[in-house]
Structures are given as C-alpha cells and as structure tokens.
Hints:
By secondary structure, the protein is α/β, with parallel strands linked by helices. Helices cover 41% and strands 16% of the residues.
Amino acid sequence: MKMGLDTDVRRAADTICEADEVTIISHIDADGISAESIFAQALAREGLHVRSVFVRQLEPMAMRHVPRDRSLKVFTDLGAGQQHLIEEHGFAADEVLIVDHHVGQPCGTAYPQINCMAHGHHKLSAAGLAYLIAKEIDGDNIDLAKLAVIGNVGDMMARETCGLVGPARAIVQDGVNYGNIVVRERDLNCYGISTRPVHICLGYSNDPFIDGISNNAGGALRFLQQLNVRLKTDEGRWLVWEELPFEDKRTIISALVQQLVAHGKETDRLLGEVYLFPDEPERTPLRNASEYATLLNACGRWAKPRVGSSVCRGDRGTAYREAEYMLGHHRAIIRELLQYILETGVTELSHLQYIHTGNRFPDTIVGIGAGMALSRLNWRKPILVMSAMVDDPQVTKVSMRTNEWALARGVDLQHALVRAARETGGAGGGHRIAAGAYIPKDVEEEFVGCVNRILEQQFASKGAHHC
Ligand SMILES: [Mn+2]
C-alpha cells in the first residue's frame, strides 16, 4: 500500500469528522493563524463544535491551556517535535491529531500525524495541510485556499523559488478557480506592492540587492524619476506598484534589469509570482498574500492571534481596525529595534555576527529585526541576535537569519542551532534560512562560539572560504 500525502489527508479528514468536538491548538504566526481559521471555518460548516487555543510555542507552560476534555485535540503548525510533551500530559493517541510541517520527534505513543515532510514536501506549510484536509471534508471549502496561500507565503514557502511550488501551487489554482486569487506570474518580487509608494517598495527591498536602490529609498526615487513614469495621482497621492499601468511597470522592470546587469548581478530573483486577492479592497494589506501574512504576524506577535483569526474569517470591522493598529505598532517597534542594532553595532566572529538586545525588545520580534539588519550589515555573515526572555530571565532566546547567498554556500541555520543548542543544554529549531533556539543564560558565550564553528564547517563543505 502506498502511503502518500493523499492517504494521510483522507485519514485526517475521517478522524476529524468522527469527532463531536474539536479543540484546535495552533501557533501564533501567520501560518498558525491561517491554519486555525481554515479548520475553524471548515468544521463549523460541518456543524462541529470547535474551540481554539493559540500558543507561542508548545512548551510545558503552554500545555496547561490544552483542555483535558473529551474533544479531539488537533495540533496545527506545532506538535510534531513535542510529542513527548503531549504524552507526558497524558493524552492518548485516539484524542490527538497532529497537523505539522516541522521535523518530528516520535515518542512512545503513536499519535496520528499528517506531516508533509514525511512525504518529501518541504514547501508546504501547516495552513496548506489544513486546507487539503478541509477540501477533503467538503469540496466546497475551496474558498479557503486563499487562507492557505497566506499561510504558505507567511512561512516563506515561496521565497527560495520566487513562487509557490508543488502541492502549495495546486492550492493557488483552487483559489484562482474559485475566483478569490489572481496570480501575476512574472511580477516584481518585492514586498509592499499594494500599500507602499513604489520607491519605498523598492528602497526597502534587498532581494535581489540592486546598487543605488536597495536599502535606499531616496536613491530609488531618483532612479524612478529618470524613467518618465507616473508616480503620483492627480491629487498628489503616491501610486502603489499594483496600480501602475502595464507600460510603466515594464519600463521600471527593464530599467531594474539593466541596473542589475550593469553591476554584474543576477536578475533571476527580480521577478516572482505574486498572489493578489481581488475580493479585498485596493491599497490595503489584505490585498496580497505577503502583506496579509505580515498583518497576521503582527497580530500574533503582539498577543492578539484571535484578532488575526477574526480577520481571516471575514471581520472587516472592529477586528480589522485592531489588526491595522497592531501592524502599525509592529512596524514602529521593529524600526526601533533595527535602529538599535545598527547604532549599537554587532560583534563579528569569523563566520557570524551577533548582538545581545537584553530585555529592550520583546523576544517575539527580534528575529524579524535580525533579518532586516542583516542586509545593512555584512550580509555575508549570518546574524545572531540574543534577547532575554521576559517571563524567564534564566533563559536566552536566540534568533538567527541568513540569506540565499549563504544557503547556496552550504549554510543551514536549523542544523547549526539544533546542534549547538544540544551541545550547550538548550533547544533549537526552525528552517535553513531562519532559525531560533532557547539556551541557558550562562552558556551564551560558549553557544555563540559553537555556532560559529559549525557555520565554518558548513561554509567549508561547499568550498567557500571567503566571508
Ligand atoms: Mn508553519
């Protein structure tokens, strides 16, 4: 018998439909929130009683929020790596379903699990899996494909390949067929195409890095002004990329290509697939997958995942206004964090650069700040940011970010942090390009040295000796 993803999807759908009550335990990021809202809506449509619990991570303290009742506990976007914890809390195999896309750590109890990693699909997020299960429950649920695309994009599944691939791309097609997704196949691969003036959009972007434009909004504006394209409306409002006439977009893209070529840079990351939502108002963060995902992340990171979930379910009143406020707040604090990192400066080791932000910023956002700071620092060296945990001063949270350049040279942050954390008494996880760890406060120095040595080995494995 072939045990494909389809088989697991069917089995998960059956397990859920057999339950009278369901508790969804999900992660607070865009993927976790969209996965939860897909399940919550699909199950409510079946007349099932659903409640949701959001957790920052599945750790011992968070387990007390998981109810000990007769409901089926559906763990989404988490659980695969914490099965021992679920077991320690006395949950039996027949009251649990794990829907995850992180590396699993089995325990004595064989919990039913659907995990795309097990089927070799590395570019599908938990929201993608939740959607496949929802569609299996009822084919009418294809309106929820849009939320799966937001989760996939939010988890950076489109990043490396400049677009979603495999099962995640098939989900996009469901949304196109339903009519709430429009795909622009070769559009500008840039964040903010629905809400930001074009020069801000270009100036805040750095993938690919374009000399004189990336990280330089003033330079980007001067560049655009030379092209004779219309940048403002008659009323003097800045146009966003999505609003530009086709001709102007083409003029700008070919000028950007020339700029890249003139500096001997690759042009292949300039264009990518963009997922627009025609049923959402223009010039709002709801209008495309990546900005929508940021809105959800802002809600989650500032302890309002339910606000994000309400927005996913269609609330455009109170919840949406609150989400917009969270997004503004999120951006302001991240700007401050970025400023702090750049002004304080990082310590450079041979293969990484690091900084400790103490308790100045919430540990839920330091990773984002690290990613933004990287391109303005020495982008050849992965960045490591440590921060104190507010609720546990004995624990240090570590966030690391790198870029495609380093990945192509053998760097794998997930592997590096898992290994270094294991050697120093902590725990790590994540993805090749972005990973994190929790370590005891007193091993910080040792830990950083250890990660540096592992990165040195990784860089050496692909024969790249220059940092
Ligand atoms: Mn995820």
